Amino acid sequence: MFEFLARAPYIRICLPLMAGILLQWKLRLVYQIPELSCLYLIAILFAMIILLKQRGRWLSGLFMQLTILLLGILILQSRTHTFAEQKHLLKDRQSCLLASVDSEPKVSERFVRLTVRTQGLLTEDADCETYERSVSVFLPKDSISANLQYGDQLVLYSRFDSLRPTANDYDFDYQLWQSYQNIYSQSFVKSGEWCRTGINTGQPLLQLSSRLRSLFTERINKLVSEEARGIAMAMLLGNKQALAASTYASYSESGAMHVLAVSGLHVGFVAMLLGLLLGFLDRGALRYLRLLLLLSGMGLFACITGASPSVIRATLMFSLFAVGMVLNRFSNSYNTLACAAVLLLIFRPLDMMQAGFHLSFAAVIGIVSLQKHLEALLQFKHPLMRWLWSMTTVSLGAQIGTLPFSLYYFHQLPSYALISNCIVIPAAAAILALGLPLIMLPQWSILTSMKQLLAGLLSYLIESQNAALAALSELPGSAMTGIFLNEQQLLLCYLGIFALSQLLISRKIHFLKVALAASLLCFVWNQRFSTAPKESLIIHHHKHFSLLEHQAPQGSNFYYHTMDTLGNAKARKLGASVASRQWHYFSLDPPNGKTLSWQNPLIRFADYNILWLRGDLGELQPESSWELADLLYLSTDFELRLDDIAKGRLSGIVLDGSNSYRYRKRIKLQAEKLAIPVYDTAVSGQFRLEQKRTDQHH
């Protein structure tokens, strides 16, 4: 172990640097130390390291690790800001901001979503107070907003709100994800409350990237068939907005979704294709020219795919590998990966918190660690079979490396992922080999026939791939869903994978014992170490229907109720993404158990009586229902005047997301006059009612 670390100095730098970044993110340490004082502190620590080298290497090494950990803390602190620093922007009144578009706009059916970098806060005196922050902005979609480009300078006059935490346990945590982008506020700007100044303040390289993507998008729309267009844009330009919902679903369920996100796989194929084309330069001093052209080609590919973080990571990793090969330094691939991680974290420390960062490095480590050993398990004489087996082992290495993270983030395991990867990985190489020349060849008439041939082959290949993956996704048991791992189980999974990989390499039986022990601990973790939730009734927040969950130690049942068929469809789609398989339509399959039962319009949960008034009831219920009610639950804008309520035992009102904004506001005003507390899931998130009254919380 120590010999391995001695040959990999960047690993010894990377680990404490990551620890410092993680420590700063978790604890949110705030220092009031000027930057110059920090430099003095670091200089003192380095001086101590030099002095301590004379007395003990372990002590000097410890101080070195502490110094790098401190650097990680300072790097993250210098490149992030906190929510508290934006409080003067988040006011009830509207603010006027000067800002520039900081990334490529995302166009949907109704809105154009922008990430803008604010430049100044315009005051009443027409002065511009310097104010640099990242803000998420939504503009109504029209002919002007849909054509915004990276770097366009805007004037925004709107009210800015803080990002709300997730409303339900199962929801994607949008607030946390945006904080990884250093974004803590957003605004929905109305038409007429923003304008474009006509100035573009973007970086020249990213402006070039935006123009190239627009040009190549036009060429794909013109040459590629409609069915293949979305996949071509995703794989060649990194733009997934044109993907059809059915295509997206078939790729996700078959385990081929990763091929649509431009990352290491695509950059690796580009490097391989360029390496084959430039192979004649691989001799003498010409190999440096080959290296320069190879790096330029990968950089150009990163540029036309939008220079996303995943592409930058992959390009940096493959560039370092290429430099090492030219310099004949093949000693340690892990050291090269650690070097790439250090460079990335110095400039973008928040990337360490993102799933893409974890998956990218896990995939490459899996390939580097396992691919050669897996390939050696089977030997083929035929060149085509050897190549196919080599591609399969690359896919296997990447899948093994990313499996725990995939379960941790996405909670599903595609059953036919190996088969789908045997299809999409060779196809991805062919799509890049056909598509890149198609979009990059000049518009000369002499090349028209060649481009039509390339376009025809590309369309046929993508359509065939789509058909094959659609067939796989329709097979029974195509995806196992509802698999959840916590952080401890994630670490145990990787311990088991490490032990199995060492068993494959060294053939020592004690690694099998470690793998079995890690698997057993991972399996029993929830039963032994996790605290089972108390039996609860949860009213979730959802805009299209009412959604209740009965959470019990043995599992959860979900009940939904809606007034329209659209809500039914959305509920069924949502049900597939929630861990529990018990999914019921409330009126057709009502609860009837010891703890939870239904006597319309009363829901009885433990010692609570909940009067549920919905739009389909039609009229106000008899007074006897009010006398039994402990809690009033209103949904779908039930017509009601709270003045008619007999006060009785009623202790509160719950409003869910199926109610309109105006209705919730009216009910709150009436409840305030009657001194009845109101809980609004649109504001406070899901409402939880536990079996014991004293334990009630949300």
State the helix count: 22
The largest sheet, given as strand count, sense and whether it forms a barrel, is: 9 strands, mixed
Global structural class: alpha+beta
Rg, rounded, reads 29 Å
What is the overall pLDDT average?
Answer: 80
Estimated share of beta-strand residues: 15-25%
Number of distinct beta strands: 22
How would you describe the shape? globular
Helix content: 40-55%
Low-confidence stretches: 693-698
Gap between N and C termini = 48 Å
Walk me through what this model shows:
The chain is an alpha+beta fold and 698 residues long. Helices cover 51% and strands 16% of the residues. It has 22 helices and 22 strands. Helix 7 packs across helix 16. It starts with a helix and ends in an 8-residue tail after the last strand.
Secondary-structure topology with pairs:
Elements: H1 2-6, H2 9-27, H3 35-52, H4 57-79, E1 95-101, E2 106-107, E3 111-122, E4 128-130, E5 134-140, E6 152-158, E7 161-162, H5 174-180, E8 183-188, E9 194-200, H6 204-223, H7 226-237, H8 245-254, H9 264-277, H10 286-304, H11 309-326, H12 333-347, H13 355-375, H14 383-410, E10 412-414, H15 417-440, H16 448-473, E11 479-481, H17 487-506, H18 509-529, E12 536-540, E13 546-552, E14 555-561, H19 565-577, E15 582-585, E16 596-599, E17 602-605, E18 608-613, H20 623-628, E19 631-634, E20 653-655, H21 661-674, E21 678-680, H22 681-684, E22 687-690
Parallel strand pairs: 5-8, 14-15, 18-19, 19-20, 20-21
Antiparallel strand pairs: 1-3, 1-6, 2-3, 3-4, 3-5, 6-9, 7-8, 10-11, 12-13, 12-22, 13-14, 16-17, 17-18
Helix pairs in contact: 2-4, 2-12, 3-4, 6-7, 7-16, 8-16, 9-10, 9-11, 9-15, 10-11, 11-12, 13-14, 14-15, 14-17, 15-16, 17-18
